[in-house]
Design a protein that fits this description.
Distance between the termini: 41 Å
Number of helices: 9
CATH class of the largest domain: Mainly Beta
CATH superfamily of the largest domain: Jelly Rolls
Radius of gyration: 18 Å
Order of helices and strands: EHHEEEEEEHEEHHHEHHEEH
Number of domains: 2
CATH topology of the largest domain: Jelly Rolls
Strand content: 15-25%
Length: 234
């Protein structure tokens, strides 16, 4: 693991857990305490590869603040982005369950703080917590639908609809709870996540704003009509 982050002590408070992990609200006291003891937070500078592809990262990962990109590089050297994960999102549960190397790179698109739950704690919750398992079923089901939609729009849609679906995916209330209707994200970051240049992303954003589905603000986007954004171009 390319770990260039600054460390904090293992273990966090119950209040901190509730702040960084919406799923923890469902956990009974003992289970929440167990989760707290197994989490460490680290910070990473923009551009840091938090975890390279084919690295075994024996932790379940969450984004506390910032934004990360999940992607890879093709044999021809072309960068491919699978998705972005904003603050509040937890991911990588499938890899931890299978105890296999990550099949993608995790890169910080801006200064980012991450939470890592060690695999032993994660597996204890899987084996002992009904509430945690209910959460995982919802999470995995939602993620499957999320990636099917990303595959569809990447292959079938032009730039503006593709960007619209990319933005909408970052407002998924199950995968990224607590996002509200505003996301701090730059046009450059949106371009990286949707596989287009900053210039094309800028043109597409202006088209979406003109159509009344988003409002562009300095360093961010506010969604006006999420349902239209999700089906834009259909």
């Amino acid at each position: 693991m390319a770990d260039h982050g600054s460390h904090t002590r293992p273990g966090i408070s119950r209040a901190r857990l509730a702040h960084i992990a919406a799923w923890s609200i469902e956990l009974p006291g003992e289970e929440a305490d167990r989760a707290c003891a197994g989490i460490v937070e680290k910070t990473y500078a923009r551009g840091t590869c938090i975890c390279p592809k084919n690295t075994i990262l024996e932790s379940w990962t969450g984004v506390v603040t910032g934004l990360i990109k999940v992607g890879t590089v093709s044999p021809e050297g072309r960068g491919i982005t699978f998705t972005g994960v904003p603050a509040g999102g937890w991911f990588g549960e499938g890899t931890v369950l299978k105890n296999e190397p990550r099949r993608y790179d995790i890169v910080a698109l801006r200064d980012t703080r991450m939470a890592f739950m060690d695999r032993a704690t994660f597996m204890w919750l899987v084996e002992n917590s009904v509430a945690f398992n209910h959460f995982l079923v919802r999470q995995l089901n939602e993620r499957l639908g999320h990636f099917m939609a990303l595959l569809e729009y990447d292959r079938l849609l032009d730039a503006t609809p593709r960007l619209a679906r990319c933005i909408a995916s970052l407002f998924n209330p199950v995968l990224y709870p607590g996002a509200g209707n505003h996301l701090e994200i730059t046009q450059e970051e949106l371009g990286l996540l949707s596989g287009m240049t900053r210039q094309v992303a800028n043109q597409s954003l202006k088209a979406l704003e003109k159509d009344g589905v988003v409002v562009l603000e300095y360093g961010g986007v506010t969604v006006i009509d999420l349902e239209r954004l999700r089906s834009y171009g259909a």
